[in-house]
């Protein structure tokens, strides 16, 4: 059954109990993405599942990764009041009344539901069509997606190599690269950790069935105060071309191999032209490189470190203002597509108020939506996070993005 609320957007964080670990070890990025994109994680058998007044309460023993606004997958409900099977499927968490229970909204009858009922974090809905030893390829299963493929080479401890592909016949045979070998031989870089060891680092993954972002704090494994991070993304942007754009798929990456110095190529920081698209909107040519610019703000500034509207909170009304961002090769040309679900902050000093996993309720056109924060940086990672080194970006975790 479809949930009574939208479950298309899902998020996962290292701050969730029982979440997968990312570290400076070979293969850890693939293990994390397997869990978030295709498998789910933290499978638990419930001790009870009851409904009262439109609210379902799931009770379990111990801990669970489920958090407010996250999406779980319920399975195994085989009995109960009329319509009992409708509790199976994706459900968005609306509350956590106790450490061993979570709640979600439903329109099913009151009562106790039975069966061997399980709950796990619901994955985004990507497939892994090809794999090798510490190699992986991911592709959206959404029928509306562009079907572009993300290839990962996770054979190095501290970084992962990434490239987008239009087609692939096995993990070593692929074509239509973005970026091309001339633009970035071997693919771009995603940081894991500044140190090659098994100490976990902080991370967040947020996405829908067609695109995702991964925010990693690679210095946090070496020093708890080095908790600013880098944001990357892959998947379908929101195309602005009437009639659609079959090649509006973006891959964010850095061209720097050192995990502590990969600030360029983030979607919330227009530096390096490292947002690769497979082709032009016409379908002609090969990989095109873009930046991701704010509609409102200073194009070259990091979100949350942008003086366009002065410091947060506003000296006029105390408001936090956010803006969408768009992909284009330069600010003087029309936007091609928008970054789905991402909101930029055209203020400075935002880091004083918002840290990783903090929530902010939307207002105005975003009323009814919850936004969740990450702290990206425009400099090297091996230093204490401050307003001088860290910004703030928000992701819509309510959805839908499209």
Task: Describe this entry's structure for a reader.
By secondary structure, the chain is mainly beta. The protein has one helix at about 30-40, and strands at about 10-15, 40-45, 50, 55-60, 70-75, 90-100, 100-105, 110-115, 120, 125-130, 135-140, 150-155, 160-165, 165-170, 175, 190, 200-205, 210-215, 230-235, 240, 250, 275, 290-295, 325-330, 335-340, 340-345, 360, 370-375, 395.
What's this entry about, in short?
The chain is mainly β and 402 residues long. It is built from one helix and 29 strands.
Element order: H for helix, E for strand: EHEEEEEEEEEEEEEEEEEEEEEEEEEEEE
Overall mean confidence score, pLDDT: 96
Overall strand count: 29
The stretches of 5 or more residues where confidence is low (pLDDT under 50) are none
The fraction of residues assigned to DSSP E strands is 25-35%
Helicity, in percent?
A: under 10%
Evaluate the radius of gyration: 21 Å
Class per helix and strand makeup: mainly beta
Shape: globular
Spatial gap, N to C terminus: 21 Å
Total of DSSP H or I helical runs spanning 4+ residues: 1
Strand order of the largest sheet: 1-17-18-19-21-22-23-24-25-20
What would the keywords be for this entry?
single chain, 402 residues, mainly beta, 10-stranded antiparallel β-sheet, 8-stranded antiparallel β-sheet, 1 helix, globular
């Amino acid at each position: 059954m479809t949930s009574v609320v939208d479950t298309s957007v899902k998020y996962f964080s290292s701050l969730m109990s029982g979440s997968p670990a990312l570290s400076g070890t070979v293969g850890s990025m693939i293990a994390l993405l397997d869990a978030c994109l295709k498998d789910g994680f933290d499978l638990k058998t419930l001790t009870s599942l009851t409904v009262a007044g439109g609210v379902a309460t799931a009770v379990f023993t111990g801990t669970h990764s489920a958090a407010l606004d996250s999406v779980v997958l319920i399975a195994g409900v085989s009995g109960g009041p009329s319509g009992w099977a409708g509790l199976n499927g994706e459900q968005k968490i609306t509350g956590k009344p106790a450490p061993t229970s979570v709640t979600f909204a439903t329109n099913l009858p009151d009562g106790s539901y039975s069966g061997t009922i399980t709950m796990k974090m619901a994955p985004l809905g990507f497939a892994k069509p090809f794999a090798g030893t510490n190699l992986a390829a991911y592709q959206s299963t959404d029928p509306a997606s562009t079907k572009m493929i993300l290839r990962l080479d996770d054979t190095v401890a501290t970084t992962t190599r990434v490239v987008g592909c239009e087609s692939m016949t096995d993990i070593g045979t692929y074509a239509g690269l973005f970026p091309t070998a001339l633009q970035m031989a071997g693919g771009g870089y995603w940081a894991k950790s500044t140190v090659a060891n098994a100490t976990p680092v902080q991370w967040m993954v947020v996405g829908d069935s067609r695109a995702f972002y991964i925010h990693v704090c690679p210095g946090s494994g070496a020093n708890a105060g080095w908790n600013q991070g880098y944001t990357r993304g892959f998947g379908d942007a929101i195309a602005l071309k009437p009639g659609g754009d079959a090649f509006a798929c973006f891959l964010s990456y850095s061209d720097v191999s050192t995990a502590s110095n990969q600030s360029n190529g983030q979607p919330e920081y227009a530096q390096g032209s490292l947002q690769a698209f497979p082709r032009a909107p016409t379908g002609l040519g090969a990989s095109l490189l873009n930046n991701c610019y704010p509609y409102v703000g200073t194009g070259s500034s990091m979100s949350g470190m942008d003086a366009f509207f002065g410091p947060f909170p506003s000296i006029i009304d105390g408001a936090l203002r956010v803006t969408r961002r768009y992909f284009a090769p330069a600010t003087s040309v029309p936007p091609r597509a928008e970054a789905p679900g991402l909101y930029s902050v055209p203020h400075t000093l935002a880091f004083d108020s918002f840290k990783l996993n903090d929530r902010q309720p939307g207002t105005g056109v975003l009323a009814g939506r919850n936004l969740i924060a990450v702290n990206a940086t425009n400099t090297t990672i091996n230093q204490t996070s401050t307003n001088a080194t860290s910004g703030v970006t928000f992701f819509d975790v309510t959805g839908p993005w499209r």
